[in-house]
């Protein structure tokens, strides 16, 4: 068993990583929340049929009554309407504040289940069981929960920490390969911003099977990095921004292609490489870094370039919610494993974007 402690004072929690954990979670959850008599398992239409019944049985064995609430898989479901149906389900199940909401699924499930938990009855104990690589290394840790609005992603949300995160890497065996690579883009991001050793480990992994074999240690490393950053900056006013490496350009790519050509991880993949090429040109990044990142991403079929003009980037970035005033903060690398925040005036932004 691998354990990562997230130290947030009274809101501290454990991330437990172990293969074969899912069927044993009933006992763990009963121990963690001894007063819980009911649990609502929120899951999506892909993950639910694969794993919800195992979890349900395990909880029922401990005397916890379980209601499974399943929504249609996909980012399109991460909205107020689906959230509304979840609230109805929680109310119908008769959940009280001493009961538990359990998110079983990818980042969409965790974000939306977390927001439901944060707001139903003004807050019910929340547990994350992430099932996508992205969710295990990123979205399940740190307490950001949200749904999308038609006008933008994650615009309605909260900071609401889970009581525990339980990761069973065996669940990744059924994850479609495109999503595995999508999450891997974020793993590579952690290597870039904080951990040269992780980056080298990934360079030495030859294929997906090997990646899945080493998932436990990779997930632990990433959770440790994220936990330390979140501990420093729970509410995302400073250091937590480092996690946005590649994201400003990546969001611009996702948005320009209407969120249907490139997934989030693919956008980030392109963003990390294009930004690093520019920062190399500006003499801010060690020479050769962009090529090295690109080679690693391409080994896992991630894209590292895009047909977009500088104007397309500028237009999309101008609409980004993270923009503050007349400048924005970009995350740049000194070299692999070493990142810093760089405030950039909008007038200088073209220097950091691929040419016309
Ligand atoms: N809260 C945060 O800090 C944070 C950070 C990063 C991303 N996010 C959010 O995370 C979301 C993306 O997460 P995601 O990529 O996990 O999306 P997702 O939840 O849609 O999962 C991706 C796909 O994989 C399927 N799936 C997941 N686990 C599976 C498994 N074990 N077996 C078979 N299929 C499985 C899902 O059904 C879905 O079709 C976005 O909404 C993003 O905004 C949040
Ligand atoms: Zn991301």
Order of helices and strands: EEHEHEHEHEHEEEHHHHHHHHEE
The CATH class of the largest domain: Mainly Alpha
CATH T-level topology of the largest domain: Dehydroquinate synthase-like, alpha domain
Strand order of the largest sheet: 1-2-9-6-5-3-4
Structural class: alpha/beta
What small molecules accompany the polymer chains?
nicotinamide-adenine-dinucleotide, zinc ion
Question: Oligomerization state of this entry?
Answer: single chain
- Summarize the main sheet: 7 strands, mixed
Percent of residues in beta strands: 15-25%
Spans of at least 5 consecutive residues with low confidence: none
**How many structural domains are formed by the residues?**
2
Query: Judging by the overall fold, what is the CATH architecture of the largest domain?
Result: Up-down Bundle
Radius of gyration: 20 Å
Shape: globular
Distance between the termini: 51 Å
Quick check: average pLDDT? 96
Please report the total strand number as a whole number.
Answer: 11
Count of helix runs: 13
Helix percent reads: 40-55%
| Name of the CATH homologous superfamily of the largest domain | Dehydroquinate synthase-like - alpha domain
Describe the fold and architecture.
With 356 residues, the protein is of the alpha/beta class. The protein is built from 13 helices and 11 strands. It has 2 domains: 173 residues, 3-Layer(aba) Sandwich (Rossmann fold), CATH 3.40.50.1970; 176 residues, Dehydroquinate synthase-like, alpha domain, CATH 1.20.1090.10. The protein has a 7-stranded mixed sheet, with helices on both faces. It has a two-stranded antiparallel sheet with strand order 7-8. Strand 7 and strand 8 form a beta hairpin. The termini are far apart. The mean pLDDT is 96. The protein binds nicotinamide-adenine-dinucleotide (NAD) and zinc ion. Nicotinamide-adenine-dinucleotide binds next to helix 2, helix 4, helix 5, strand 8 and helix 6.
């Amino acid at each position: 068993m691998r354990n990562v402690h997230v130290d947030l004072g009274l809101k501290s929690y454990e991330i437990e990583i172990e293969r074969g954990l899912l069927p044993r979670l009933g006992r763990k959850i009963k121990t963690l929340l001894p007063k819980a008599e009911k649990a609502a398992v929120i899951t999506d239409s892909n993950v639910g049929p694969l794993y919800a019944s195992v979890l349900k049985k395990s909880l029922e064995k401990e005397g916890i009554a379980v209601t499974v609430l399943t929504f249609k898989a996909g980012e399109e479901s991460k909205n107020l309407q689906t959230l509304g149906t979840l609230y109805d389900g929680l109310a119908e199940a008769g959940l009280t504040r001493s009961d538990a909401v359990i998110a079983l699924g990818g980042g969409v499930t965790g974000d939306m289940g977390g927001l439901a938990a944060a707001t139903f009855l003004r807050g019910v104990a929340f547990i994350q069981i992430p099932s996508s690589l992205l969710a295990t290394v990123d979205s399940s840790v740190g307490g950001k929960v949200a749904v999308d609005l038609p006008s933008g992603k994650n615009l309605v949300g909260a900071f609401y920490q889970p009581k525990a995160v339980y990761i069973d890497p065996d669940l990744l065996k059924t994850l479609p390969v495109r999503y595995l690579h999508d999450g891997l883009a974020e793993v590579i991001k952690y290597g870039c911003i904080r951990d040269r050793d992780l980056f080298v480990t990934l360079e030495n992994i030859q294929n997906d099977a090997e990646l899945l074999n080493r998932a436990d240690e990779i997930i632990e490393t990433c959770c440790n990095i994220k936990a330390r950053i979140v501990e420093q900056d729970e509410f995302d006013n400073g250091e937590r921004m480092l996690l946005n490496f590649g994201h400003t350009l990546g969001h611009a790519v996702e948005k320009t292609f209407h969120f249907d050509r490139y997934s989030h991880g693919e956008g980030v993949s392109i963003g990390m490489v294009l930004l690093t090429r520019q920062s190399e040109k500006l003499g801010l990044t060690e020479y050769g870094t962009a090529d090295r990142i690109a080679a690693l991403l391409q080994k896992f079929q991630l894209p590292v370039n895009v047909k977009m003009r500088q104007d397309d980037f500028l237009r999309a970035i101008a609409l980004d919610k993270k923009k503050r005033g007349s400048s924005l903060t970009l995350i740049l690398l000194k070299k692999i494993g070493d990142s810093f925040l760089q405030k950039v005036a909008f007038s200088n932004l073209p220097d950091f974007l691929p040419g016309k």
